[in-house]
Every structure is written in structure tokens, then in C-alpha cells.
Amino acid sequence: MLKEKAAVYYTPLYDYNCAEAMIYAANDVYELNLSKDTLKVMAGFGGGMAVESTCGALAGGIAVLGILFVKEKAHESDQMKNLVTEFMNLFETRMGTIYCGELKDRYREEPPQKCRCVVEVAADILEKIIVENN
Predict the structure, then answer these.
(1) How far apart are CA 75 and CA 87, in angstroms?
(2) Looking at the whole model, is its pTM more than 0.85?
(3) pLDDT per residue over 2-32, tens digit each?
(4) Is 49 exposed, middle or buried (0-12, 13-18, 19+ CB in 10 A)?
(5) How many Å separate Cα 93 from the centre of its chain?
(6) Is 37 helix (H, G, I), strand (E, B) or coil?
(7) What are 45-96's pLDDT values in tens digits?
(8) CB atoms < 10 A from the CB of 52, how many?
């Protein structure tokens, strides 16, 4: 369900970047009730933080993991580190890289699709991790 919702938010209808699509989708699917300001936090993470570094869909997914699994701060347990590591490793195994520029070279399509497959893969992996750890 997260994959489908993220794909919808990554369309011209909403015009969100990959990081925004991830957090908006999770907000809906997991009923996080995040404020508009909290959702806007992810805006700068799209496009690999605008410089084609680490994929924005991954950044959005990591934000969701923090919201769902951190009680007060990440250092309370190893859970957050383990979940993020699993998320990043599974994504890299499936897609071959975590870097936006490389992902664009390999998977980006013409608009309106753009990096939809990347967003869908990130959402699919994120959902599996969430289900396995709830």
C-alpha cells in the first residue's frame, strides 16, 4: 500500500519530489498526523539533497523510520541504526547504488514517470521493514 501511495504523490498532480512523496505517503498510510511544517522538512532532500548525493527517497524513508521507531532520541537503542542499515543495504542490493545521480542514469524515465520506479522500490522496502518490526 505504501508503494502505491508514494507513486501517487510522485505524480504531476502533487508535484512532490521523491523525499516528499515518501513522507506524505507514510503520513497517510500509517496515520502519522504530521503537521504541514513537519512534512515540508523533506523538501530539501529531493534530488539527492539537490546535488545528486544520497537518494531523496531513502532520506524520506529514514525520516519515517525515525518517526515510527524512535521514542525520544536515536541513541536510546541500536534499533534505529539497525533499521536504517537494513533499509540502505536492501535498497543498494536491489538498485545497485544509493546515489541519486547514478540512480537517475540507470532508472530515470521521461516525465511524468521520472524516478517513479526508484520511489516505488524504496517504499516497498520501507513497508517490509515497518511490517517486520511492528
Answers:
(1) 18
(2) yes
(3) 999 999 999 999 999 999 999 999 999 999 9
(4) middle
(5) 16
(6) helix
(7) 999 999 999 999 999 999 999 999 999 998 888 999 999 999 999 999 999 9
(8) 16
**DSSP single-letter state for residue 12:** T
- Tally the C-alpha atoms within 13 A of residue 41's C-alpha that lie toward its C-beta: 13
C-alpha cell at 48: 539527492
For 73-131, give the DSSP string.
-GGG-SHHHHHHHHHHHHHHHHHS-SBHHHHHHHH--STTTTTHHHHHHHHHHHHHHHH
Q: Whose CA is closest to 19, among 128, 123, 95, 105?
A: 123
Looking at this protein, which amino acid is placed at residue 15?
D
